[in-house]
């Protein structure tokens, strides 16, 4: 790679890192769910959930960058199907969160595991918007495979501590939410935020 290309590529990856940080740390379905998980289960039990988010999303970025995201351009109806499926699933998750038990149920309930959290990225509208937007904007034309894998790796490295901050914050709130009634109110609030996160995402007409 020539020196000017190297400099240009470094600038692109630096800009992409800023994009990854902002998009990972701002509110969305993943962060709302890990915040609630931190409150209900503590940080340690939420770690598989965090790893599943970062690993699953890195895989999504890689596959979208290698061509999967082009299906939205060739078949626009697939984006509409995704919106409906994702919306229905997130409504179901919000209902489960809103009707979850109090402190006494923490030991029998289970936080989301690695595989389920990784699979959730494929029905997470914000994840699709982030992945398609990142790949369409920041993938360089030369050596696409290497560039896509670098973007996926950067996203994984930045995404993990970003979502972990939400789990840490939730875990810190546990002692303030020890009362079952207060915890239920919190869970209902998180469920409403989960539903609210759908509005700007599902209101879009396309993925980019």
From TrEMBL:
It is found in: Cell membrane. GO terms for cellular component: plasma membrane. GO terms for biological process: cysteine export across plasma membrane. It is a multi-pass membrane protein. Signal peptide: none annotated. It comes from Cupriavidus yeoncheonensis. Pfam families: LysE (PF01810). One of its GO terms (molecular function) is amino acid transmembrane transporter activity. The chain crosses the membrane at residues 48-69, 81-98, 148-170, 182-202. Keywords: Cell membrane, Membrane, Transmembrane, Transmembrane helix. This is Cysteine/O-acetylserine efflux protein. It comes from the Bacteria. PANTHER family: ARGININE EXPORTER PROTEIN ARGO, ARGININE EXPORTER PROTEIN ARGO-RELATED. Its main location: membrane.
């Amino acid at each position: 790679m020539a020196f000017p290309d190297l400099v240009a590529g470094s600038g692109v990856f630096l800009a992409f890192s800023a994009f990854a940080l902002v998009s990972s740390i701002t509110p969305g379905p993943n962060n709302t769910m890990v915040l609630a998980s931190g409150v209900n289960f503590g940080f340690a039990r939420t770690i598989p959930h965090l790893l599943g988010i970062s690993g699953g999303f890195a895989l999504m970025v890689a596959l979208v960058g290698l061509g999967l995201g082009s299906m939205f351009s060739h078949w626009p109806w697939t984006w509409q199907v995704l919106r409906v499926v994702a919306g229905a699933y997130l409504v179901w998750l919000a209902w489960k969160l809103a009707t979850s038990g109090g402190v006494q149920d923490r030991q029998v309930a289970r936080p989301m595991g690695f595989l389920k959290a990784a699979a959730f990225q494929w029905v997470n509208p914000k994840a699709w918007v982030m992945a398609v937007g990142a790949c369409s904007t920041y993938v360089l034309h030369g050596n696409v495979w290497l560039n896509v894998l670098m973007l996926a790796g950067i996203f994984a490295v930045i995404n993990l501590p970003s979502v972990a901050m939400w789990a840490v914050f939730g875990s810190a709130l546990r002692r303030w939410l020890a009362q079952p009634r207060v915890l239920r109110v919190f869970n209902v609030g998180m469920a409403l935020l989960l539903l609210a996160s759908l509005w700007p995402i599902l209101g879009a007409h396309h993925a980019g």
